[in-house]
Structures are given as structure tokens and as C-alpha cells.
Amino acid sequence: MLALEQSLIPAEVARKWMLLGLIIGCIVVSFIGLTSGGVSISYSRLMDILFAGQSSNLEHAVIWQIRLPRLVLAIVVGAGLGACGAAMQAIFRNPLADPGLIGISSGAALGAISTIVLGSTLLSGFADYYGIYAVPIGAFLGCLGVCSLIYRLSSQGNRFTIVSLLLAGIAVNAIVGAVIGILTLISSDQQLRDLTFWSMGSLAGNSFTTIIPSLCLMLACCFGFSRLAQPLNLYLLGEQQARHLGVDVVRLKKKVFAYTALCTGAAVALTGIIGFVGFIVPHIVRLLIGPDHRYLLPASMLGGAILLCLADLLARTLILPSELPIGLITSALGGPFFLIMLVKTYRIKEL
Fold first, then answer.
1. Residue 257: what pLDDT?
2. Which end of the chain has the smaller Cβ count within 10 Å, N or C?
3. Which long-range contacts (CB under 8 A, 24 or more apart) does 226-229 make?
4. How far apart are CA 137 and CA 191, in angstroms?
5. Helices 189-199 & 104-118, crossing angle to 10 degrees?
6. What is the pairing mode between strands 155-156 and 159-160?
7. What b/e readout covers 100-128, taking b as 16+ CB neighbours within 10 angstroms?
8. Cα(184)–Cα(170) distance, integer angstroms
9. What is the distance in angstroms between the CA of the first residue and the CA of the last residue of the chain?
10. How far is residue 69's CA from residue 269's CA, in Å, rounded to a whole number?
11. Residue segments in the chain with a per-residue pLDDT below the cut of 70
């Protein structure tokens, strides 16, 4: 149970400064993201655009139609993935757990790839009716379908255990992986290119009109997670101990499962698969401030938002005028930082 019981900073200090520092960091990263890119905009011009409406048509369009929707999407998706990862690691009582264990990523990939590959044949009616929204809707439906199947297979008499959930997830993920392999095999060159880029994640091409329904769903799930902080703290003591202290353990696990499926499914439907955020951010935050979910959940949300904003900034500025897939950036940022924190933790334990 690596690092579920420890913190690198005294809890008192963390409670005082960590959340405030993350809020300030999120605001700073947001302003940098809005002013940086292919069209550079000064901070004074940004203030005019946001609050006074004074700007050229180009700058106004860049902020309100491109950068601001991406920024809002990055903040909410990062916060949602961070909260999902923290809750999943608590329920599995394992810091290596992430939303992929319950089939969210594979289900979303199956839905999206099915829509891309079969959208001109078997699913032509679906693709024609929903147009540009067909792939996001297909990903969301695929995610919910696979999550529902895993829940049904792992539950016995309206109850399920973590072990049965894990085993059902492994089996269904393997089957879904085989189906995705077949669809990839029969895809054309253009379809193969589309599904490859979708699987690496991107925040591009979204407007406020397209993202608002998913944003509302993700924010509602984040609010739901925040109300589970105290039960999750008691759950870390063990299932029997949590029951004796009045926690409905089965209901708690169902809520975490449902919130994680809905939140991550809504995020993946808009952005594709963005790895590492739900895994690395809660782990790093727990190393810094400890396992108390009253602070861990909001700190993970803010940390996830900052990480994804930074990743999006790098993705659209490193190789201008092209754009890197954001999933590559999150892995490149998160992996080394995770290794550094891990080595430091082991050294502290050895002293």
C-alpha cells in the first residue's frame, strides 16, 4: 500500500498553504495559456478582450472561440480525472489504481473506433444523424456500456467486491482489446489515422456549445466526489471497520464507480484518451499532503487542472504551427516527475 499512509509535508502546513498555492498556480497557468500561442497577446490586451470587449477581430476570435473553450475544457477535465483517480485509489486501497481498471478507457475507445471504422457502413445512420458529434457520443456510449457490463459481471446479489470488480475488468478489457484490434485491422488508411490521433488525445476543435453538456456532467461528479471525503477516510481503515463506524460500504463503492464512469466517460468523449492524469496527480498530491480526502480530493482536482493546462500549453506551442497530441505531453511530464517523487519517498523512509 505504497504511500497511502504518509506525506512529505506536515499535515498542518499542507492544510494551510497547499490548496491556496494550487489555486494561485491554476490562475497563473490559465493567464499564461490565454496569452501564449501562435498569436501572442499581452496581458493588458487580454484584460481588454475579456472585460471591455476592445480588440481586433482576430484577437477576440482567438480568445473567445479557441483558447478560452480549450482552457475551460482543460481545467474541468483535469479536475475530473484527478478526482476520479483519488477516489479509485481509495476504493482499491492501492495508489496504482486508475479509472482504466473499470473499463472506461477501453470502452470509450471501442465506441469511438466503432464509429470511425463502421460510420460509413453498419453505423451510417448514426454517423449521418449526429454528424461531428458522432464520435464523442459513440465514445461516451461505449464507455457506459462496458462499465455497465463489468459492474453486472462483478456484482452478486446487488453486491460486489473489489476483487471481483478487478477480475471482471481485466477479462472484459481483454475482450474489448481484441475487438478493437479487429476493427483496426479492417480500417482504411484515413480511418487508421483518425483513430490513432483520437487515442492520443486532443483538446482542439471544441467550442462552448459542444462542451457545456459534458462540463455540467463532470462538475456534478466532482461535487459528488467531494461529498464522499469523510466516508472514504473511514473506508481506508478497512471495510469491516468502516461498517462498524456507520459507513454503507456497498453504497459507497457504487457511488465511486458511477461517478468515475460518468465523469471519465464525459471527458474521454470530448478529448480522447489522456493518460497519467488520474494516476499520477493523486499519487503526487498524497505524497505531499497525506491521505485525508477532505484535502486530497480538492487538491487532486486543482493539480489535475494545472497539469492539463500546462500540457495543453506545451502541446500547441512546442512545434508551431503543428500541434502535439496532449496524451504524449501528459506522459512525458508525469512519468519523470513520478519517478523523482518515488525515489525521494524511499530515501526518506530509509533515513
1. 82
2. C
3. 226/83, 226/297, 226/298, 228/87, 228/252, 228/255, 228/256, 228/293, 229/293, 229/294, 229/296, 229/297
4. 17
5. 160
6. antiparallel
7. bbbbbbbbbbbbbbbbbbbbeeebeebbe
8. 21
9. 19
10. 16
11. 1-16, 53-56, 96, 100-103, 123-124, 127, 157-160, 338, 341-342, 344-351
Place of cell 479509472: 99
What is the per-residue pLDDT for 28?
A: 92
DSSP for residue 95: T
Q: pLDDT by residue (tens digit) across 143-161?
A: 888 878 887 787 776 666 7
- Residue 111's pLDDT is 82
> What is the C-alpha separation between 235 and 86, in angstroms, rounded?
13
Residue with cell 500540457: 311
- Please provide the DSSP assignment of 123-186 as one string: THHHHHHHGGGHHHHHHHHHHHHHHHHHHHHHEETTEE-HHHHHHHHHHHHHHHHHHHHHHHHH
Whether the CB-CB separation of 149 and 223 falls below 8 Å is answered with no
C-alpha cell at 111: 465506441
Alpha carbon 304 to its chain centroid, in Å, reads 8
| Residue of 280, 278, 277, 284 lying closest to 345 (CA atoms) | 284
The DSSP annotation for 194-256 comes to HHHHHHT---TT--HHHHHHHHHHHHHHHHHHHTTHHHHHHHTT-HHHHHHTT--HHHHHHHH
Q: How many CA atoms, within 13 angstroms, populate the side-chain half-sphere of residue 53?
A: 0
Asked whether 263 and 76 are in contact (CB, 8 A), the reply is no
